[in-house]
Amino acid sequence: MSQRKIVIEPDPILRKKSEMLETVDDELRALLDDMLETMYDAPGIGLAAVQVGILKRLIVIDISKDKEKKNPLFLINPEIISSSKKTSVHEEGCLSLPGHFAEIERPAECQIKFIDYNGKEKKLKADGLLATCIQHEVDHLNGILFIDYLSKLKKDMIVKKLIKHKKELDKVIL
Ligand code: GNR
Ligand code: NI
């Protein structure tokens, strides 16, 4: 297992649509394992493959609070098949937008269809933080970031700060 580098906004790859997978094999599982390790190390509660530079429809999630009792969820080709009319507001963060948080309104519940780690088709009903996280991750697969739901003013301000942040990071690396 190895950790991968997380792509930070602005980066054109984060705006691309990820592609469906045809097969679940050991190579794919190795990538999912790397994504999970990268997410735990960050730390985060979700990660989409595009955030490590791979345009495939893959997501890992673990919303468990207890570090001892991990509960990883691997979603391959996830599809939201229904969403509630009722919405909820959660404070969201994103590993591709380090240091920035905003309250985002989304459907409170959703149902998804996906392929699991073993290549089996599954369905899942989610609410609360899990529903929010799933929708945030599926957005990544379609090139959408949570800042896209904010006013242009707020969004531009965050992107400007991230450009500065990335320049600082470059200085440290050089
Ligand atoms: O770690 C994360 N926390 C989070 C909090 C509220 C809603 C969504 C998330 S996902 C985020 C990790 C990430 O960037 N996933 O794409
Ligand atoms: Ni994110």
Overall description:
This protein is of the alpha+beta class and 174 residues long. The chain contains three helices and seven strands, in the order H-E-E-E-E-E-E-E-H-H. The chain has helices at residues 26-41, 128-141, 152-173, and strands at residues 46-48, 58-61, 73-83, 87-93, 101-107, 109-115, 121-127. A five-stranded antiparallel β-sheet has the order 1-2-3-6-7. A two-stranded antiparallel ribbon has the order 4-5. The mean pLDDT is 96.
Index terms:
174 residues; alpha+beta; Peptide Deformylase; five-stranded antiparallel β-sheet; two-stranded antiparallel sheet; 3 helices; globular; binds ligand GNR
Concise structural overview:
The chain has 174 residues and is an alpha+beta fold.
Draw up the topology in text.
Layout: H1 26-41, E1 46-48, E2 58-61, E3 73-83, E4 87-93, E5 101-107, E6 109-115, E7 121-127, H2 128-141, H3 152-173
Antiparallel strand pairs: 1-2, 2-3, 3-6, 4-5, 6-7
Nickel (II) ion is lined by residues 94-96, 136, 140.
* Domain tally: 1
Largest sheet: 5 strands, antiparallel
* Element order: H for helix, E for strand: HEEEEEEEHH
Globally, the shape reads: globular
Which architecture per CATH? Alpha-Beta Complex
Sheet with the most strands: spatial strand order: 1-2-3-6-7
How does the helix and strand content classify structurally?
alpha+beta
Number of helices: 3
Each distinct ligand: ligand GNR, nickel (II) ion
Q: Within the CATH hierarchy, at the fold level, what is the topology? A: Peptide Deformylase
In total, how many beta strands? 7
The CATH superfamily is: Peptide deformylase
Radius of gyration: 16 Å
Distance between the termini: 27 Å
Low-confidence stretches: none
What share of residues are in beta strands?
25-35%
